[in-house]
Amino acid sequence: MTSMLDDPIAFLRDERWTVGILGLGYVGLPIAVAAARKGLAVVGFDVAARVVDGLTAGRSHVGDVDDDALGAALDAGMTVTGDPAALADADVLLVCVPSPLGRNRQPDTSYIEAAADTVASVARPGQVVALESTTYPGSTEDAFVPAVERAGLTLDEDVWVAFSPERVDPGNQLGPSDIPKVVGGVTPRSGEVAAAAYGRLVSKVHVVSSARAAELTKLLENTYRAVNIALVNELAQLAHELDIDIWEVIEAAATKPFGFQAFAPGPGVGGHCIPLDPQYLAWRARELKFPTRFIDLAQSVNEHMPIYVVDRLTQLLNDRGLPLRGTRILALGIAYKRDVADDRESPALDVLRLLALRGADIGVLDPHVPTDRIAQHGYVAVGGDDPLADWDLALVLTDHTAVDYARVAGEVGLVFDTRDAYRTRGLAGDAVVAL
Ligand SMILES: NC(=O)c1ccc[n+]([C@@H]2O[C@H](COP(=O)([O-])OP(=O)(O)OC[C@H]3O[C@@H](n4cnc5c(N)ncnc54)[C@H](O)[C@@H]3O)[C@@H](O)[C@H]2O)c1
To answer: How far is the CA of 29 from the centre of ligand 1 (A)?
Structure first.
């Protein structure tokens, strides 16, 4: 039997090893469950007692992991703990903690730094440390190399440090094991060893020359999305002025078998990646006095979309002799995207806040977001079977699958659809106005 110190690549390829996961949220929990399914030993660590208690009791708080899958992982021996000391058993440590923006839209790396302190306190000879949290180029090296050195370890002799961006897409059928993983070590040797670990977790590993290249890969992917969404958002506004249906145009352009990827306009961008990740890159560029014009422009166009939606809706009501104040608006969906319960950074919340400020009465029908969460935002939660005739207008902000769109249009009588939910279902008609 090989050991991590004698031959880490053979050990990680051939033996049953232990993976320790720091942070059991949307990213960490699916990885933990997938690793347990692959027969690895798993130790999950989270600082939030609520998360640890819920998972230990078999209750998943992440939409993509159902209680049965969690139960199977726990039955297979996965442990969930709030005690970082348990991570000392792990041969591979995967760091999946949040990387939000601070008050002035600068990167908040405090969670990554706290995780690095935890790593420093548990690191021992024979461990791989890989950061998965999205962050700017240089972060892995800056935070984790000093951490393992503080633990008295020598890089590439008894510890290997890498970055591997998480690409999981909540609500997508593809789980963490199905999505190719980019891996870059802070040194080439660290990259090779980390790639051997990921080779057991995912179907395909793509190794790049450095952690910094892997960090920038993730930021390129999400900046590309932000910029292209901004492009169609701007064109949607122009197409409206030209009296052309933007959705028809995008569908037509998408018939080109090369050189065009379809992106959809909408009420803005949301979630915890597209609005945030480009800002990590822009912040690092600002330090170098390098202008990031595409990022800045995309942000400005995307952030304007809630205002544009409210303007269009106001015009729609005006055309029918209705004031916005006092109008009863039923929002379909507040989650940031289809078929998820996550409303973090959702542009729907910006739209509804603006409508409420202008005096509209708002109800929300969202089959995924819990009713108490809707109430926390200050809106009336409407059930899927509730009568709808009292509402003056339905506003599609998230195109969840589990909504009876035909019934909504029939009972409410007027719909403003920012997601093309009606036309794609063959339900376009006089009652429906598209973005
Ligand atoms: N959610 C996504 O779709 C997605 C996709 C790709 C990448 N990412 C990136 O992955 C990272 C994690 O995102 P997420 O959505 O899983 O966040 P999350 O908020 O759902 O989960 C993070 C978890 O980490 C825990 N935590 C915080 N500090 C900790 C610490 N010091 N030690 C241990 N646990 C700690 C929190 O309690 C929480 O349970 C972020 O960098 C994010 O940008 C997220």
So the answer is: 9
